[in-house]
Amino acid sequence: MSQPAIQAENLHKRYGEVVAVDDVSLRVEPGEVLGILGANGAGKTTTVELIAGLRAPDRGRVRVLGLDPRRDRAALRQVLGVQLQHAHLHAALTVAELVDLYRSFYPHPRPAADLLDLVDLGKQARTRFEKLSGGQQQRLSIALALVGRPRVVILDELTTGLDPRARRRIWAGVEALRDETVLLVSHAMDEVEHLCDRVALIDAGRIVALDTPAGLVAHAGTATLEEAFVALTGKDLVREDVA
Question: What is the arithmetic mean of pLDDT over 193-200?
Answer without folding.
Answer: 94
